[in-house]
Design a protein that fits this description.
With 446 residues, the chain is an all-alpha fold. Helices cover 72% and strands 0% of the residues. The chain is globular. 47% of the residues are buried. It has a domain of 168 residues.
Length: 446
């Protein structure tokens, strides 16, 4: 969900950084704001642009020098800038103090949302392990719970993303509060904010049926208008993870209207996996047809783009969705199986892309990919055998648990079965065909 965080960072830009200019604050507070921005970008007056090479240390130094004078808005600005400027491995020791300042400085909901977003970004490497962070997060959690009823949709999305990403103990409690207060205000939320909120619920495995139903009804009534590929893929993924009813027919129509080539690899594979997962639980024929439609469109798109830029998880999700749906339809006797001439070429393309470098795959990803390809008779020994041999020789097979190992062994057994039983039949068929063609030619010349 990396692109969600990128979107939220841009959304935060319009919050604390400019609000001081609009709220009649004191000259000293404006001076602090200017110092923070100058420290971040190295300009005077500051201009939005590339961060200074030593921005993290400079921002922390400017905030520390003014620690006694910082208010909630300036403290949240410092957090926001630190979260954007920090390089991997850098530790922002002043972050807990800034969070405490935000919470204790008559913070507005937007300040708390920005502080939550920054806390999640800063916790990627070392935030949770540093002294003082537990107390700061506890104070932030209590402040967010107290003010979530006053938050706008953007603030709700920022806080939901932050606490779902941090996976702290209070995440479910905060998300439940946000969902409760948001259910009656669905019409005020943009599709992006609804998608992020439902994604956060699914990320923490928190099933709030009322909110999910309200979002589904809003999607259905608007036919998904203004929902973009990322929003659609996140919402259908959340519906699949939480096992909630979803408007599959409208989702399929919206995806087709957006055109599948606009879906990035992550969005395409997520949408395919979620469509299969929802389709397995569906009983309505119209919904099952919608699933077939989405999977076939996804498979056609893979044939066109040749799985370029697909990461191992994307390859596995797309292949797993196609193969499992085919198997489900056959076992359940459903007439919604994808056409072989659409499904099988896509699986071969996914397998060929994966075979370029099996070392990138984890045990679960590789075993599921192999199973998916082999189950549809698309596993080619010459193409996938050598890289699989190298994978085994590199001792990566030790990471396989019993289920993964059984799936891999089953895949190879299916492939061997094809070599033993199907190829001779094909050779016989080919020889008969040649004889018939020869007879036709002889008849023609008589």
């Amino acid at each position: 969900m990396g692109r969600i965080s990128k979107h939220l960072s841009l959304a935060c830009e319009a919050g604390a950084v400019y609000r001081l200019l609009l709220s009649g604050v004191s000259k000293s507070e404006l001076e602090i704001q200017k110092e923070l921005l100058t420290a971040a970008f190295g300009h005077d007056p500051p201009d939005a642009g590339n961060f200074h090479p030593k921005a993290t240390a400079r921002i922390a130094g400017a905030a520390a020098a003014r620690r006694q004078e910082l208010g909630a808005v300036n403290a949240s600005t410092a957090l926001h800038l630190l979260a954007q400027a920090r390089k991997p491995g850098e530790v922002c020791g002043i972050a807990p103090d800034l969070i405490i300042t935000v919470v204790g400085g008559a913070a507005q909901p937007r300040d708390l949302a920005i502080a939550s977003w920054a806390a999640a970004r800063l916790s990627v490497d070392a935030f949770k392990a540093d002294a003082g962070h537990a107390e700061a997060l506890q104070a932030l959690q209590e402040a967010v719970k107290a003010s979530c009823g006053e938050m706008e949709s953007q603030d709700v999305a920022n806080v939901a993303w932050a606490f779902a990403s941090m996976q702290v103990e209070a995440s479910q409690g905060i998300l439940w509060h946000l969902a409760e207060h948001s259910t009656s205000r669905i019409s005020a939320f943009s599709p992006r904010h609804l998608a992020i909120l439902t994604w956060a619920l699914a990320k923490t495995k928190l099933r709030h049926e009322t909110l999910m139903k309200s979002v589904a009804e809003a999607f259905e009534s608007s036919q998904g208008a203004e929902w973009m590929p990322q929003d659609l893929s996140n919402f259908i993924w959340a519906s699949a993870v939480l096992r909630c009813d979803s408007p599959l027919e409208q989702m399929a129509s919206r995806a087709a209207a957006l055109r599948w080539e606009k879906f990035r690899p992550q969005e395409l594979s997520i949408a395919m996996w979620a469509a299969y997962s929802l389709g397995v639980a569906e009983r309505k024929g119209s919904a099952q047809r919608a699933v077939k439609r989405m999977l076939q469109h996804g498979a056609r798109e893979i044939r066109v783009r040749l799985a370029k830029d697909f990461e191992p998880l994307h390859l596995m999700n797309a292949a797993w969705a196609l193969a499992r749906w085919q198997r489900h339809c056959r076992l359940a006797g459903l007439p919604q199986e994808c056409k072989d001439y659409v499904c099988r070429p896509a699986l071969r393309i996914l397998a060929a892309e994966a075979a370029k470098d099996f070392s990138r795959f984890g045990a679960r990803e590789l075993s599921r990919l192999m199973w998916a390809v082999a189950s549809q008779s698309c596993l080619r020994l010459r193409e996938m055998g050598p890289p699989l041999r190298d994978y085994v020789r590199s001792s990566q097979l030790q990471a396989f648990d019993p289920d993964d190992l059984v799936s891999l062994a089953t895949s190879l057994s299916w492939m061997l079965e094809r070599l033993v039983w199907e190829l001779p039949a094909r050779r016989t068929h080919s020889r008969v065909s040649q004889e018939l063609r020869g007879a036709d030619e002889e008849t023609k010349y008589r």
